[in-house]
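User: Okay, second chain of the day. Same drill as before: sequence in, structure tokens out.
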Amino acid sequence: MLPNTLYAPIFPQMENDGVINFSELSTSGIVINVGQYENAAPGDFIELWFESYAIDSIGLAGDPVSQYFPWQSVIIPEIAILLPNGVYKVQYNAVDAAGNNAWSTVGKAIIDKSSTGTLPPPLFPEAGADNTLDYDDAISDGGTPVTIPNYPDITAGDNVTLFWVGFSGGEIIQESITSLSHTVGDDELNGFNLVISTAFIISKNMDLARAWYVVQRTDSRNERSENGSVNIDTSGGESLPPPIFLEGDDKWIDANEALSDDGTPIQIPAYPAISIGDTVTSYWQGYSQNNTPVPDTFWQFITEVQQQDISEGFIVNIPTASILPIGIGSGASYYNVQFASGQQGSSLAAEICVDVTHTLELPAPVIPEALDDGVIDETDAMSNGGTPIDISYPSMEEGDNVSLYWSCYNASNITPVAGTVYSATLSVTASEAAQQSMTFTVPSRYITPTGEGYAVVNYTVNFQSGGIGYSDDGVANIDTQGDIISGSDYLGGSTGYAPWDNTVIQGCFVKYLAMDNGVPLKNVNVDFTLFGNNYFTNNNLKKITVSTDPQGYARTNISGSDTLKNTITAQIVGSSIVASEVSLETERSNDITVPLLTSEPYIPGSGNRDFTLSVSEEVGTFTLFTNNNSNIFIDGINKGGVVTNLTVNAGSPVQFSVTSNNINDTVITVSRISPANGTYCSYYF
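Assistant: Same drill. Structure tokens below.
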């Protein structure tokens, strides 16, 4: 079972100075590390989000799960360098094999391309002669003011963004990072103050804060200030855990949540040393999309702790009237405690996205294969590797981030069938935006275990312009009472290759090892079924029965000219052993030297799946990569999820292995130059 909250991701490039600068962006991009979380287990799926974009994912294929951590993801320099200066929220979502999910706390990446500036630094009026802010300074009036001086040529209409980051012993404190934006008014030409909230000052033994501001002038020029630093000593109060948004399990407060029960609830946890008679003041502030405080959203509420609050804390309700003015933006909440003992404390901040603008439910997704009879049958589920889901909603824009959620149920059960919970996220392309439609494919393995039941599918949209939308449910009956697919165990084969001078795929086959309790079965029949446009060579059909040899193997060749994905299943005739499945894809090439992938049948528990990379003739140099960052091992060395400049000779194929749970969610692909250029073949297992 996943914990309720996971640790925030870490940004190693920020360790020294608290920012990611131009040199780091241009050479390394943005490096994001995810550490191992509590109860991580095989079957977990992790999706990494940068603001509202899902940018990477990884599946934990097998034990020990420590081999996957720390998981490192990189936003490549070509993309990272285009991002403007600012604070970017990064977090990840983990889903376990049972469909339980949990979000990490938010990590914040600060992009500051110059790292230095020419405008005068911000000032700290409460710091005094010793340049130190104490606990009283931190909590008075909800935080401490930071003065933006009357910098040269200050003009009404300038947009000023203040950045704040804290350190402890020279190490950055993620919980301290914040920014505020403000438009200069006519009466602020001699300078003005912006208030850093208490929650960003009292974080985890913070001893130093650094602040700077960036001015976007009315003529669109950007200028940065010098850094200002101030010592922090909040030892006069305790740092307490943040409040919890009870309706924020999807990172958002939407209109329904804001309006229900006249607001949205937050839980003040049973903080350390909680006592009867403590006085707790809870705070909330709303912010616009550019992180400017929204008028009329500040709220505070005083609670005296009672006996019933000691074990689990208590709940307060942020009123609707303090949420609705935000429109699309965010909110932050924290609390201060005046202990009955006379001590004081203040919590870290809890932050959440807000969208009370998109109030209409989006249209349900369409399941084309169920339109004629309302049923997804076995053929539907297996053809082309899965069943398509069409999504269309008003004003679809390029860059919208769409997340699909699928689960299947038997009869009146409210718990999904094991192995049928699936989610995926895609960004809308320019062509999809022009057509106002996009298509997902739910892989076969998330459908076939259902047998007889029904599927529920819906989606959310993180709009490129800001905010979130939720769809109605699409529902279809499921009838896959045929073979139950458990994965690719005991099944292997070869992608073959499609040479430049021949339309027929060469060297493609599948091979199955019939086993029962670890003993090979000879002279038993194995049914092979092909879903795709190719066919079995021996009978020109899509189904064939082959007897096993004395070692328990059944092999059959595949012919045809279809270079799309073809899926093959294998099952022992009359056996209760579940069917296995692999998919093979071979692209036609004009090259003389063409690569192909071959894998022997995989025996469960034998470790990584072994592959051979061969070429049709002569010699070639290729790139190997996996779709989900499964590791590639060559000569026992972990090469990660991508191997470039791999040279293969016709007489000397390359042996390698790939980590995977062998349940048809891993793809190993051979390409010409890079994962996005010149694909030759792919093996799905």
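The CA atoms of residues 413 and 453 lie 10 Å apart.

User: Thanks, on to the next one.
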